[in-house]
Amino acid sequence: MDALSILAGTRSHAAPAAGFLIRRAESAADLAAYRALRHDEFVLGQHLFAHSDADDVDDDPRTVVLVATAPNGTVLGGVRLAPRCDPDLGWWTGSRLVTVEAARSSGVGPALVRAACAHAESAGVLRFEAAVQRRYAPMFTALGWEDHGDCPIAGRPHALMRWPLHQMQRLTDATKSFLGDALAPLRDVAGGLGPAGFVGDDGVPLPGSDVIAACDAIIPSMVERDPEWAGWCSVLVNVNDLTAMGAAPTGLLDAVGAPTRSLLTRIVRGIARASQAWRVPVLGGHTQLGVPASLAVTAFGRTTQPIRAGGGAVGDALRLTADLTGGWRPGQHGRQWDSSSARSADELAQLATLVARMAPRAAKDVSMAGVVGTAGMLAEASGTGAELDVARIPRPADAAMGAWLSCFPGYAMLTADRVGAVAPPAPPGVTTAACGLLSAEPGVRLRWPDGVATTAVSADVTGLGRA
C-alpha cells in the first residue's frame, strides 16, 4: 500500500506563501511539479524508493491529484486519490501526500488531507483509507480519521487510517429513522400498522380477504418540478410495493392537488400514461385545484400468499434483482434511475410477477432509502442484521457504486431465501444475484474484496422493530 505522510524533507524551491489554494491538478506542469516534490522527498530524502516512487496508480486515468498552490501558482504540495479496484467499487485510497518544507507551518498538509476527504465524499466513495507513517497518525486522528492498526511499508512503521464515511447512515436517518416514534400512536388501535408479521411492510393484507393495499406519496418538490414524471412514479412505486408482496395489481386510487390547471393536467397525464403502461386502472380518487402541489396513490392487488418483508432468518441469502436498463433521469443524476419508461407493457407486466414467481421467504422493493437502507428495513422486520458483498451487487455500468446504493433505482427487489435457492428467468436487462446474507448483528455492513466489513448503518433503520 502506498505511503501517505506529512514529510520532513529539506529541499524546497518555493518561499512560504501568505495563503494557498487547493485545487485539482489540471495541467502537465501541475503534475510534473507534484511528482518532483515526491521524488525529492520519497526517493532522495527518506530513501523509501531506490530510483522512483512512480507506480501504476500514477498511470491510472481514474486517479485524482489535488495540489496546493501559492498565489503565484507555485505548487506547495499535493496528494493523490484513486479507486482500489477495477471496476471501481467505491473503495478508494489516498497516497503520496507531500509538502514543501517552507509551507508546512501554514497548514498545507492538513488542508490537503481535508480536501482529499471532501473530494472522496463528493465522489460518493464508500470506503476511503490511507497508509500513514506511524508518527503522523495522531494528526490524522485529530482530523477525524480512525486508526485501524499497523501496516509496515518498506520497513517503516505505518498505520492504516480510515476516513469515516456516513452517507448511508445519513440517508436512512433522514428518510426512515423517525417512523417508529412518529407512528407509535397508530398502534393504540388493534391492527394498527398492520397485522402481526406485516408491520412496516410494503403493503398490507386487508383482514378477511386476499386483497393487498399499498400507498405512496410523491415529494411535493418533485411534483412541482417534473409533474409528468411524478405522475408516472406514483404508479411505479405502488406497483413495485405490490410486486414485493407477490400481489397482482388490480386498481389504483389517486389524490392530486395542484395550484394551476396546467400543473394538474401534466400530473394526470403522467398517471394516465403509467396506468396504461402497467394496465392498471385508476378507479377513482380525489382531485383539487388551487392548492399546493401534492400527489398520493393507493394501489390494490390480490394474492393468497403474500410475501412478508419480515420472513427472513439469520443465514438466509440476500438477493438483489434489478432492471439495469435505462439511465439517470434528467435533472436527477445520482438520485433516480429510470428503467421503466422505455419498457413495453408486456415487459412491465412480467416484472410485476417476478417476486411472486421467486416465492422467497422475504421481499422488499428498494425505496428512497436505497439498496442499503432497504436491506436494513428487511433485516429489521426479520429481527436480523444484513451484510452485503459489494463486489457481487448488480448495478448499471454507468452508475457509481455509492450512487447506486443510495438512489431510487426504478425497479429493484431485495429478497431473502435459503442459500442456493434458484431464481426464475428474468427479462433481458434484468440482473439477479445473491449478494449478501442476513446476520445476527443488527444494522447493515458492507463486505469488501479484502474481507474487511465496514458499517453502513449502525442499527435498526425505522424503529418499527420486528414485523
UniProtKB/TrEMBL annotation:
Pfam families: Acetyltransf_1, AIRS, AIRS_C. GO terms for biological process: thiamine biosynthetic process. InterPro entries: Acyl_CoA_acyltransferase, GNAT_dom, MSMEG_0567/sll0787_C, MSMEG_0567_GNAT, PurM-like_C_dom, PurM-like_C_sf, PurM-like_N, PurM-like_N_sf. GO terms for molecular function: acyltransferase activity, transferring groups other than amino-acyl groups; thiamine-phosphate kinase activity. Residues 20-166 form the N-acetyltransferase domain. It comes from the Bacteria. It comes from Mycolicibacterium madagascariense. This is AIR synthase.
